[in-house]
Amino acid sequence: MDEHYDYVILGTGVTECVLSALLSVDGKKVLHMDRNQYYGGEGASLNLTQLWEKFRPGQEVPKDIGRDRDYAVDLIPKFLMANGELTKMLVHTDVTRYLEFKQLAASYVYRDGRIAKVPATEMEAVRSQLMGLFEKRRAKKFFEFIQNWKDDDPATHQGQDLDSSPMTKIFDYFGLEAGTRDFIGHAMALYLDDSYMTRPARETYDRIMLYTSSVARYGKSPYIYPLYGLGELPQGFARLSAIYGGTYMLDKTIDKIVVDDSGKFVGVRSGDETVKADALIGDPTYFQNLPVGGKNLVRETAKVVRAICLLKHPVPNTDNADSVQLIIPQNQVGRKHDIYVASLSSNHNVVPRDLHLAIVSTIVETDKPELELRPGLDLLGPIHEKFISLTPLLEPIEGGSESKIFITRSPDATSHVETINEEVHDVWRRATGGKKLDLKKRSDEEGAQVQA
């Protein structure tokens, strides 16, 4: 390998493939390598044989649950917001031409021992089972305030200031109960914890508006999902990268990250070949057991426990929905972290017609990880097959500006991609010397192809 590249990228997760495509479109010379034979890295979509090989090696696959081609099971399920950043990236880069999306049927939240649909409008709030009569009125006023807010019209502000007031003050102004704050903050604004309460309310306002505008785009729910699994996303971005000159190499061992005496990146050695480049972007698992220049570049911050469940029925109490995003806010079950349930069906081409797929995930807090999923698993009814995984959450120890080694963070426990969006922007800024990622707007007609 005598060629010199601007960037070498290790791993074909969604974050890495998005960055590869964006850099290629930006005119950079990119080489993308992965140790696996398939795209997606830690977040690949597996067929039936691959699923058994990963979780039950040596065991025979049952004959009564369909064929390999009927399955595309996400190891890390993520839904896209219809008006979210990643959807904009898909449109901006034309990756939508390779993918087809289907809308999720509904978004649910757990409160007071039962689940209910997340209201996205003032009228849904009035009909919601989540709240009593008086709380519905208060919630209706809150949503009307959010929907009617105009920065240049003080008459819509009701004396509030989104930029200087913390979100808790806005909640207090409308007198909202703790449970209502839970579903607004965690199931609509999609926060991972309650620290947003003390930050300026503008941030939460923007997130709620993203949720409601995403619902308005296609109706029913704010989420869309690629047919044949999330593994289609990195493949779509990889195809785009290749069109713009990017080179992909799968099934390549990564034996050493080569640096000079000062610790600055020089190249990547695979077997007896070394490829050289100006900078490296990498999935953190490539650095987990591979010290660079004698020092570790990643650290473990937590672990995520996930249960992949095959069901013979839809998730109970969801009106037989073919697909559901269900969030169990931390406060509702006495935890520090939310529990996420992602449910899909054959309508998304991920399981056979008579099965449903449900994946439950959360951040580990105790020495009995599987028990921590119990609040989510208990909502699923009888489980036909269950596969448990425990994966570390890794993050870079340094930003990479001196070493020119820019490491991404592990995908988190959430079942939506908003945290991946933040990661793409962060790594882009670090890897391009502070350059802002600018996504040109295209017309709505050029949006993602979505089946209602």
TrEMBL record:
Query: What is one Gene Ontology biological process annotated in the Swiss-Prot or TrEMBL record?
Result: protein transport
Any single GO molecular-function term of the entry would be: Rab GDP-dissociation inhibitor activity
Task: Read off the Gene3D superfamilies from this record.
Answer: FAD/NAD(P)-binding domain, Guanine Nucleotide Dissociation Inhibitor, domain 1, Guanine Nucleotide Dissociation Inhibitor, domain 2
Write down the InterPro entries for this protein, in alphabetical order: FAD/NAD-bd_sf, GDP_dissociation_inhibitor, RabGDI
Pfam families from the UniProt entry:
GDI
Q: Cellular component GO terms, alphabetically?
A: cytoplasm
Q: Which family does it belong to?
A: Belongs to the Rab GDI family.
Spell out the protein name for this chain: Rab GDP dissociation inhibitor
Please give the organism.
Answer: Jaminaea rosea
